[in-house]
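Exercise: predict the fold of this chain.
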Amino acid sequence: MKNKTSFLSSKVLLMAAVSGILVFGSVTFSHATTIFLSGDGNLTQPLTGSGVSVDSGNQQFFQNILQGGSTVAIQDITTYSWDTSVNTYYNSIAGVSSSIFSGPITASALTGVDLFVSILPSAAYTASEITAMSGFGGDIFFLGENSNFPTNNGYINSALTGLGSSMSLVNDLFDGGWHTATGSQIATDLFTTGVSTFSYAAPSEVSTVSGGTSLFYGTTGKTFLAYETTAVPEPSTLLLLGSGLVGLGFVRRRFKK
């Protein structure tokens, strides 16, 4: 009788332990990492009026994607001043701190960052940089260009694959010269709230973005800016998983006795 009771008790403990692990699959998510992808880098210029008139729609969009965050980190680029335009604009918003950094992308560089911006990268992202981007908990904005920049776009596409994204830059070109998206060229979305105009393209064309949720379309209906969200389990989920594993360990000890 004692052995039967012991067996039943162990069985109950086993079920409880397994339940602790199964809960892992039904928990809520505390943070959704959103990846934004643009086939145009010139759309940063209207943020500050660099070579073109300021567009309040571009400013509103960049404020929307910050999602109430307060810290922005921008990877330094040497070919164009687009990083400076983004940095200057974000620093003009009350309560927001933005900075440009050079060197490798590390967990330390992204600590406390709400939005990481990378524009036309000049080198491939390393495996450790992909790991840092996937684990820092903030959002990411990649900005590529048209098919005249296949190598740079390739670096972004490789990073997107490494981050588990289904989006990519197609490496084509359309809409040469300055264009302003209005009306049906602007999708109805949380990230386009308050955006009635959006300037892009000049002086050369932009590239199509494949996959994700479209936000802005060119004159021919092709998407040039989209986003994708990946859910990250909240820390309590890991505690539940851990408690389940501890429970299993306890059951194993009971069976050994």
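Check your answer against the key: The chain has a mean pLDDT of 84.
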